Amino acid sequence: MGESPTVVWFRRDLRLADHPALLDAAAAGPVVCLWVADPGILGRRHHDAPARLRFLRAGLEALDAELRERGCRLVVRGGDPARVLPAVAAECGATRVRWTREISPLGRARDERVAAALAAAGVDAAAMPGDLVAEPEDLPGSSGEGYLVFTPFSRVWMETPLPAHRPAPDRLGGPELASDGFGALPAGDPLIPAGPAAAREALVAFIRDGAADRYAAGRDMVAEPGTSRLSPYLRFGMVTGAQIGRALGLPGEISKGRLAFWRQVCWREFYHHHLLRHPEVARAALKPALRSIRWDHDPALLAAWRDGRTGYPFVDAGMRQLAAEGWVHNRARMVVASFLVKDLLIDWRVGETVFMQGLLDGDPANNNGGWQWTAGTGTDAAPYFRVFNPVLQGKRFDPDGAYVRRWVPELRDVPASRIHEPWRMSAEEQRAAGCVLGTDYPHPVVDHAERREEVLARYRAAGDTVA
Which tens digits make up the pLDDT trace of 157-191? Predict the structure, then answer.
């Protein structure tokens, strides 16, 4: 082993196992593990997300604890990484820096600046894979430019061999450096436990309790515990897609439910590939014809949506779950997103920001991909005229109203026949249910049928040609 250490720059890869950058560094000799509190990232609007930042801090603390068990520690420094990384390398005499590849436009631009600064300082710097089952260049598609539609992508991705498991190093050693600590991130208990051990526990429970095998049938029933809730752990690399695949039993034959869940991991990777190949979607619709839609700017309607006071129970339940848990069931995500865009006629980018600020799993690729899918402006093959009806969605996926009653307690005594459209209650029924519209719960802020016609007219006026 050489004596010169390698700096491993952790970002959204907070684990020790299946971590190519860390394992490359450990094989070369001493290691310095670093996390940078970058004000250029933390100060951005999308990262004004206290719940997610508390989760991040807890994840970093868990990572630090695992490193200390192996004779190392996590060094924290604040500032521009293009200055911090060369300074830390000089401080510890490192000649190499390694990190896990980033795919967002902002992250890639930052990493290019860091690589240039390190090269100028004579330090060997390299970004390595590690968070995806398949890297974008491994799935070029017939055009060489990747895939714009999920189905052909999924056919190829599903055949991709899983990366082999690479255990965490038993021991890690390196020079002792001062650390600034975690004060740049908000303190307090996260909404869910953080770290690789917590991710493994959640994954094991999802499989052991049978939810993975029941996933195909139960994943859309919003009141049931039918989903994994692994998305926050994937967001920060506390678990990887390959680790999930191996836990499901891949490679090999797996149940229909597990295969349906694996398909959701595929969706995640699809959006990551898409953002890397089409960075413009971070700011604009993928479909140029839909970049000129006329949106409304109504602060009162936006506030009603954000606060869960639209008068549509299924929508309100989803937004209140977001506020309370930093997580929303995927079915509810689609419905609340559709309501903002196609009932309230508000730009999808506004909702994308609200989600990024509220979600523990707020991820630039997946959040953007999901919002553009719902808005009909992105990669989805379906035309723009898909509009979710919040009443019918509630009746189908929350038939007895359990989800609504949990998150909208003022409706808890409304009968199931009226729970998703309480405005149909007579005055006597409202009094019997203890829910008087306009007093205890709002009237609908818009008429869904009218707004559907209006939004379709606006999409057509924008000159869409993909229907």
Answer: 999 999 999 999 999 999 999 999 999 999 999 99
- 294-345 per-position pLDDT tens digit: 999 999 999 999 999 999 999 999 999 999 999 999 999 999 999 999 999 9
What is the 8-class DSSP label of residue 138?
G
Whether 2 shows a pLDDT value over 70: the answer reads no
- Name the H helices within 188-344: 196-208, 215-218, 231-235, 241-248, 256-277, 299-306, 313-325, 330-338
Q: Does residue 467 surpass a pLDDT of 70?
A: no
In a shared domain, residues 273 and 403: no
Q: Environment class of residue 20 by beta-carbon count within 10 Å: exposed (0-12), middle (13-18) or buried (19+)? A: middle
Euclidean distance between CA atoms 33 and 313, whole angstroms:
47
User: Do 442 and 304 form a contact (C-beta atoms < 8 A)?
Assistant: yes
Looking at the fold, whether 292 and 424 belong to one and the same domain comes out as yes
Q: What is the pLDDT of residue 154?
A: 97
Range in 140-144, 259-263, 421-425 with the lowest mean pLDDT: 140-144
| Distance of alpha carbon 96 from alpha carbon 101, whole angstroms | 16
Same-domain pairing of 119 and 220: no
Q: Cα–Cα distance between 220 and 264 in angstroms, integer?
A: 13
pTM above 0.90, yes or no: yes
* Domain boundary residue, one of 239, 256, 277: 277
Beta bridge partners of 10: 35
- Ramachandran category for residue 441: left, alpha or beta (phi over 0 → left; psi -120 to 50 → alpha): beta
Domain total in the chain: 3
Residue identified by tokens 């049928």 is 449
Look at residues 104, 130, 156 and tell me which one is the last residue of a structural domain. Answer: 130
For tokens 């436009």, the residue is 105
Residue 307 and residue 434 share a domain: yes
Instruction: Write the DSSP assignment of 266-283 as a string of letters.
Output: HHHHHHHHHHHH-GGGGT
Residues 326, 433 share a domain: yes
Domain span at 364: 288-461
DSSP string, 355-413: HHHH-TT--HHHHHHHHHHHHT-SS-SS-TT----HHHHHHHHSTT-HHHHHH-GGGTT
- pLDDT exceeds cutoff 50 at 465: no
Strands 96-100 and 74-78: unpaired
CB 41 within 8 A of CB 132: no
Phi then psi for residue 366, to 5 deg, are -75, -40
pLDDT of residue 383: 67
